Structures are given as C-alpha cells and as structure tokens.
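User: For a teaching handout, I'd like to show students what a predicted protein-ligand complex looks like in token form. I'll give you the sequence and the SMILES for adenosine-5'-triphosphate. Please answer with just the structure.
Assistant: Understood, here is the input followed by the structure.
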Amino acid sequence: MPAKKSKKKKKSTKTASNVLRFLRSERGQFLMGVCVIFIALFMFIGMISFFFTGAADQSKVANKYFLDLIIHKQDISNWTGVGGAFIAEALINKYCGVFSLVIPVFIGMIGVRLIGIKTISVIRAFILCSFILIWGSIFSSFILTKVFPDSHIIWGGSHGSILEQLLETALGGIGVSLIIILLLVVFVIITKQTSVGFFKNLFPGSNGIPKSDAINEDDFEDEEAEEDNEIIEKNSVLNKIFNWFRRKKKEEDVSEDNLEEDNLLPINNDLQRELSSPVYTPPAQNKPILNRQSRSIDVEDDFEVVIPQEEAYQEKRNIISPIRPILPREEREELTASDVEEMEDYDPTKDLSNFHFPSSDLLKVYDNTGKGVDMAEQKANKDKIINTLRNYGIEITSIKATVGPTITLYEIVPQAGVRISKIRNLEDDIALSLSALGIRIIAPMPGKGTIGIEVPNKDPQIVSMQSVIASKRFQECNYDLPVALGKTITNEIFMFDLCKMPHLLVAGATGQGKSVGLNAIITSLLYKKHPAEMKMVLVDPKMVEFNIYSTIEKHYLAKLPDAEKAIITDVSKVTQTLNSLTKEMDDRYELLMAASVRTIKEYNEKFRKRRLSPLKGHRFLPYIVVIIDEFGDLIMTAGKEIEMPIARIAQKARAVGMHMIIATQRPTTNIITGTIKANFPARMAFRVTSQIDSRTILDMSGANQLIGRGDMLFSQGSDLVRIQCAFVDTPEVEEITQYIGKQQGYANAFELPEFVGDGGGDDKTGSVDLSDKDPLFEEAARLIVVHQQGSTSLIQRKFSIGYNRAGRLMDQLEAAGIVGGTQGSKPREVLIMDEYSLEQKLSSI
Ligand SMILES: Nc1ncnc2c1ncn2[C@@H]1O[C@H](COP(=O)(O)OP(=O)(O)OP(=O)(O)O)[C@@H](O)[C@H]1O
C-alpha cells in the first residue's frame, strides 16, 4: 500500500516538474505571453467601450456580482460583454478612474516580455504605471470632474475622489494644483537623470550653454559673455522642441537604413533627455558616430557617453533550437540546391547524420542586469581625466566615452599644438588620479584622429559564452573554423577564422584566464563544426585542463594508433604525436599533389564531387586543430625535439588544414623563441606581470596593463584589439561534452599515422647494443630503481635531456633487464627492487 502511494506521489511530482519545465521553456513562455496579451487586449477594449456604452450598462452592472450578471443573462452593451463591462466599471469607476487604462497596458507589457520580442524591465514598468495610476486619479478627479461634471464616468475613480477631496480640504484648490505639478516634477527628476538640465534650461540665464572649443570653464564665462545672449536665445524651450523634432526626423532617416528599431526607441522616445541636451553640433571630425548597436547619451554639453547595446537575446535563441540541429554549412548548401546530381555528392557527415549540435541553452546566462552604466562614475572619470591633463597644461576640445563590458574607452581630442607623446607619458598620472589599474593610453587611435584612454569599470560585467554563441553574428558566420572569443570594448562580438590566422599563440600569467580562453575557443568550434569536419589533438601537461573533453573522444579527438587516451598528458607522447602530425601533414600534401589542388578546401570539394577515388588512397580530410596547453613545460623538458615539429607544422600545415594553438604562462624568450614567434602571427595576450613579457608576446607593451579575469589583447600583425574574453565555466563545458558524448560517435578516435623515426621508431629493443651504453646509463638506472617508476619523462626531467635520448636510455635499461617492456602510456615495470640488487646487476653487465 505505502509503495503504491509513493509511486503515485512520484508520478504526480514528475508531472508537476514536467509542467514546470514546459512553462519555463521558450515555447511555454511564448504561450503564456500570447495569453497575457490577449487578456490585456480584452480588458483594454472593454474599458474603451465603457466610455461609449458605460452609461447604458451602469445600472445593470453596479454593485452586482459577476456570476449574477451571467446567470441572469443581462443585456449588456459593452463590446466585450459582461466581462468587459464588469472589469471597466470596477477599474474605472470603483478604483482609479480613467488612468486605469495603464493596467491593461502594463499587463500587455508583461506579455510582450514573456514572448521575448522586447526586453522590458517589469519593475520599471510597474513603478511607472503605479505612479501614473495614482497621480492620474488625483489629476482626473481634480481637473476632468470639473470639466465634464455630467458624465457616467467617475473620472478619478473612488480612489481619486477621496484623495482629491482630502487634499482640497487640507490645501485648497491652488495647493492641489501645486501638488499635482510637484509630483510630476519629482517623478521626472527621479526617473530621468538628465531632467535636471532640462528644468534648469527652462530658466533664462541658466548655464546649459555649449562651451567653446576648449573645455575651460573660467575662460568661458569671461570671454564669451557677448555670445551668451544669442545662445540662450537658441536654447529657449521652443527652439529646443523644434530642434528635437528636426533631429528626430534625421534619426528616422537613418533608421530607414536598417537601424534596428529596438536600439533606437529608447533614444527617440526620450523627449526629456533630448530636450536637455544642448543645441550643439560638435566639430565634424568629432561628431559622434551613432553605432548600429549603440545608445548615446549626451550627459553634458561636452561629454557624450556611448553605451553599445547587445543584440536581443531572444532573437538569437530562435536561431538555434535544441530540436532543430544546425546543419554543417556544406550540408545546408547542398540542401538548398535542387539539383539531383548535387544530392549524390559524397557527404562526409553521413556516418553521423543524426548528429545534433549542442544548443546554446546548455550554456549559462549570467545576470548583468544590476550592472548598468554608472553615469556618476563616467562623469567623475571624465572630470579626473580633464583635470589631470589640465594640470600638465593640456587642454582638450572634446571627450567621449564608450562603455564596454569591463572597460570604458574615453576618446579625447587635444587642442591643436599638443604633443601626443606628452599625453602618452601621462599614463601613470592618469592612473593615479583615477586610482585604477589597467589604464592604457592609445595615442593616436588608429584611423580615428583621437587619443584613447582605456579605464576599467568599477563593476565589470561577465561576458557569457552563451551571449557570444547565441549571437546572430556567430550563428550566421560561415568561417571555416569559426572562433568567437568575446566582446570588444564597443560590445561587438569578436570573431576570427582560425583557418586564416593560421596558428595562434596564447600567453598570460597564471590565473588570468588562459584556460577559460582555450575552452572558449574549443566551445565555439564544437558549436559549429560537425565531427566529420574537424578533429582536435589536445595536449595537456597539467593533466586536468582538458580532461573534460575525454567524453567526445570518438567524435572530435585524434590520437596515435597505440595510445590509450586521446588527451595527451605525458610529455614523452607529445614528441611522438607531433612527429605523427608532421607525417599526416606530408601525407596530406601528397594527396593534394595527386589531386592537383592547392588547398584542403579545393581537395575536399573535389572529393565531395566524387572526382577523387578512395581506391587511390584519397579520403575526406577533416581540419585538425592542435591545442597545446602549457607549452612552456614541454619546451623546458623536451626542448628542440618539440620546437622543431611545431615549427614545421606551423610553417607548412596551413594549406592542408592543420592549425595550432599553443598556450603558455611563461612568456619568456627561451619559451617563445624566434622560430615559434615567426610562425605564430596571431597572438592572444592575457595579463602578464612585466612589460618585457608583453613585448615577448605582442612585440609591444600593453599586456602588463590589463586587469586580468579574461581581459586580453589580440594581435594579428599590427592590429591590436582589447577584448573581454567570453567566460565559459567547466560545468558548462561538461554539459556540452556530455551532450555530444551521449550521441552516436565513430567507432574510434581519429587515428593519426604511425611515425617511424630515423632510428626505426620506438621499438628498438631487439637492436640495442649494450656495449655502446649511454654515459647516463648507470645514473638513469639508479634513478628508475630509487623512484620505482619506469618513466621516460622522469629521465628527461632529471637529466634535462630530450625525448629521443631518454627513449634510447630506456631501451638500454630494458635490454639490461632493469625495466620491462612498454605498456602503452603507462610507465614501464621496474624489475629491480632495490639499489643493492641494481649495483650487482650493473657490475655484471
Ligand atoms: N573571461 C573571464 N571572465 C570572467 N572571469 C574570468 C574569465 N577568465 C578567467 N576568469 C576568472 O579567472 C580565473 C582563472 O582563470 P583560468 O583558470 O582560465 O586562468 P589560467 O590563466 O588558465 O591560470 P593557470 O595558468 O594557472 O591555469 C577563473 O576561475 C575565473 O574566475
């Protein structure tokens, strides 16, 4: 019996959680949104009808119960029947009067938010509607009742009437009028930051006047007194309104040029803010460019703050749904072609045709809502920059701020005659005055004619991987190996095609965001490339960083034929793998040559068209991305043996679709050598501790001035871009890899070719000549016996020798019977138990 009960209980909990999940899903939310909008519409129509039909219905509806009215089938004139008449009578006459119309409007807003076509702040809307409701009821009761005394409508509702009567008794008619105006002013001042300027400007003589070229308040008052009257004239309220309409028209013209309505509405609708901004046209070269995604606020006459807007999230969500997989580009192209012959092309993804790409829902959405733009902070920073520069005798003609997720860029235009180097040298002084780390001066800003000062925001935002992956740009991009890295200072998604880089060097001190950066790169590739199109070789000497990718071994990873695991953690295996990759590279070149093509793209295209026969050894070539974390560790242990194959691959592998990403936390010249640097034109620099390190990575300083936590500089040739790296946490990556891992994969990981070195490869035990022992033979034997660990990398590390020599030593130790044979990636068995037995053994050899 109790078992039955608990089963029943379980079932009902499951149903409830299913319902909840549905309601939380996109479909559920959309459905609820539509319902809510219909309810709002019904109420609104009912209330509008009330103005025309309310008189006829009033006697039938007033003081009755809703059910009574339905049961007794009353003849109701309201367009929405008993329901509408009842709601309208209650809301308008009983409660808050005609301004109750904002109630269905508010409900409609909630519906719109649920549907997701527009992001509306519910709290803001609630406060706004509540104020309108209360203020409106008093206002209507006081004014409209006097204007239209003989009406079936109680203009301010019972609520308004009572309040208004109380106020009128206490303060008199004039007092109530003043209270109504005061409440309105208070509300506008509280809700609109720029309203103070607007109100000030209503009074002639206020200083809402555009300033002269130089921002120098003292000079300004004395010298331009004469011009003041003229300008004040220009600033009169009528002129402002006229100008506002003129500007609005201009903006509408721009908006026809595809500017998103979403982003402009807040600007256009904001009459108060526009009115408060001065009638001041900045010099042509300083004119603010209205970014497609930007919202620009004229905080003061001379200071414009641009807040680049993100693309609407919902719009992006619709692009990838968990149900509808994103087909690989090639497949999409093929499907659109109606040509039957095209359909017969070879389809590399056919083996895993049911493969579903992960959806962006698997990634976490970080709540940055509380981290809006702090106008006070922007203004204070601006003042500090101006004052610091002024202290050193530098005047500027304009200053503009662009607020990014973690950094704000202040662009200044100095007065003619100021030496740029003078400003550049003030980096430390500005940093001191702003009491902030990570100040960077870009003088001049390339192609802009301004000088940039980057200042970290007090409350930085997290750029979620979700926002980057779900962005329209990423979803619609057709790069061969698309990598979405994060967001630039102007909130734009920063993306690049790894194929074009073609190799990438990642550096940064420990804990500054390298691993997160590598995960972001891998994640973007996983979201766009089908397992048939891309394979990865992951090298992880730290052993813990790439472990999460082991679940996708049979989908995306490549490994050596005899390797147990695809993720390489053993230093000794790295040389083998890299050599194997150089072999794969050479094999691919031979295939390309046989196919008479120059690039992997042309080759694969030919293969798809079935113009290359598999019988002649041709095969579809997936891209291979080699990612090495902590490359410094490898160079320290294996030196040239690692550097050489890396350099070879970096020099040649681009055309055959092999790309490398190497990361290091030790950006010194003995790790990032000249050979490495020459072959890795694209560099990603996270924060480093010294200017020298920054120069080693980027060939210039800057990385030492970053603020960490994913703040980075990306350089490709001479261009240097500051980016906030997208944040993807380990659990998020796990979700993705598990989603992929659960799906059908290939039988094995992608097999790399076996590499047989000059000496005949690894397995040389049979030919080992113990008469020609390595000078380190005895010491190595002691080391192995003392540690009881037959590991080649141990020998490498202890004696600082390369892998080949350590491997030879190990073979000699095996031939001497000190260690056992190879056991895949595991250390060899040590056959001698103690040092005494070893000494005996050594003397007998
Ligand atoms: N893009 C980012 N946004 C926000 N926080 C970040 C970002 N990247 C890194 N962090 C923060 O910094 C911490 C360290 O990052 P990460 O592990 O990537 O550093 P690392 O450079 O790889 O360090 P190590 O070299 O020691 O492994 C993270 O746990 C996270 O809290």
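For the handout, you might add this sentence: The two ends are 79 Å apart (CA to CA).
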